[in-house]
Amino acid sequence: MDLWRVFLTLALAVSSDMFPGSGATPATLGKASPVLQRINPSLRESSSGKPRFTKCRSPELETFSCYWTEGDDHNLKVPGSIQLYYARRIAHEWTPEWKECPDYVSAGANSCYFNSSYTSIWIPYCIKLTTNGDLLDEKCFTVDEIVQPDPPIGLNWTLLNISLPGIRGDIQVSWQPPPSADVLKGWIILEYEIQYKEVNETKWKTMSPIWSTSVPLYSLRLDKEHEVRVRSRQRSFEKYSEFSEVLRVTFPQMDTLAACEEGPKFNSQHPHQEIDNHL
Ligand SMILES: *[C@@H]1O[C@H](CO)[C@@H](O)[C@H](O)[C@H]1NC(C)=O
Ligand SMILES: *[C@@H]1O[C@H](CO)[C@@H](O)[C@H](O)[C@H]1NC(C)=O
Ligand SMILES: *[C@@H]1O[C@H](CO)[C@@H](O)[C@H](O)[C@H]1NC(C)=O
Ligand SMILES: *[C@@H]1O[C@H](CO)[C@@H](O)[C@H](O)[C@H]1NC(C)=O
Questions:
Q1: Which pLDDT does position 258 carry in this prediction?
Q2: Which numbered atom of ligand 3 lies nearest the CA of 163?
Q3: Ligand 1 pocket test target in 84, 113, 115 with most atoms within 8 Å of CB
Q4: Residue 270 CA, closest ligand 2 atom number
């Protein structure tokens, strides 16, 4: 009993620090619950059937979407029974002005899409899920914190050189930025991480991130097939895209090579369709 009073006091103290002057608004109460959950994990379990935010993601720093789980309660599965509200901190003062989600449709079921008119980078957002005014979940972020680009596309390769005659070759791998990221006019600046391996190896070799959209790979064994994949991230941020489709590099047979030495350019086989989410 006494412990609970301590928790509550602590939670309210923390939350009123975060929202000075806002009194016991829904935002204040919403802030209290994550604190309680951290202190007492069983509370989280008992409410695990509630709808919750699963993620917010901006593919290009110009729009973003947030998603939530449906939860177990049948009443809350009825379309329209859950509302998302958001507030932005425009000036230095944080006096939350909650507005309802501008678009529940474009990002699919249980989601809210914020088009570019509703997206401001560097400005803190808070979002909350409610049903009939009851708070279900709440989350705060800035849009640059939730950037996760789409994967690069159009991975391809050309032969540069046969460095050790008949044994090893150098290739140039190239790709294009994800179409969703307007890297010329937009805010986003991407860097790329390339991984490659021989087909039968289990571990990918990882190159350090680069800013260009092509890179040479040196000294690959001509008698092995190789696989290459690439992913992107907002420069100097942590969160990478999924990997691109895997490009399979098959060197031509030696007799073909000899015949082609004047114009060495070889197409890839069809890339794998699978996308591997693991490192
Ligand atoms: C964003 O959506 C609103 C309607 O929800 C629309 O009026 C506005 O034109 C849209 N803005 C852009 C840039 O598409
Ligand atoms: C790879 O590049 C070659 C030569 O530039 C081109 O003909 C081929 O269509 C490209 N393949 C893919 C998958 O883009
Ligand atoms: C091919 O690689 C060898 C060994 O690295 C180098 O000496 C040679 O200049 C390269 N040739 C071309 C055309 O790049
Ligand atoms: C990979 O290993 C399998 C058997 O484990 C073999 O049949 C296949 O030829 C190998 N492929 C390459 C490119 O080495």
A1: 53
A2: 2
A3: 115
A4: 13
Phi, psi of 8 (to 5 degrees): -65, -45
Is the beta carbon of 260 within 6 A of some atom in ligand 4? no
Task: Domain 153-275: state its class.
Answer: mainly beta
| Pocket flag, ligand 1, residue 100 (CB < 6 Å) | no
**Which tens digit of pLDDT belongs to each residue from 68-118?**
998 888 888 887 889 999 999 876 767 788 999 999 999 999 999 999 999
**Second-level CATH architecture of 2-146:** Sandwich (2.60)
What stretch(es) of the chain map to CATH 2.60.40.10?
2-146, 153-275
CB contact set of 64 (below 8 Å; sequence gap of 6+) = 56, 57, 58, 114, 119, 143, 146
CA distance 216 to 214: 7
Query: Which residues of the chain fall below pLDDT 70?
Result: 1-48, 91, 93, 164, 254-279
Which atom from ligand 4 is nearest to the alpha carbon of 224?
13
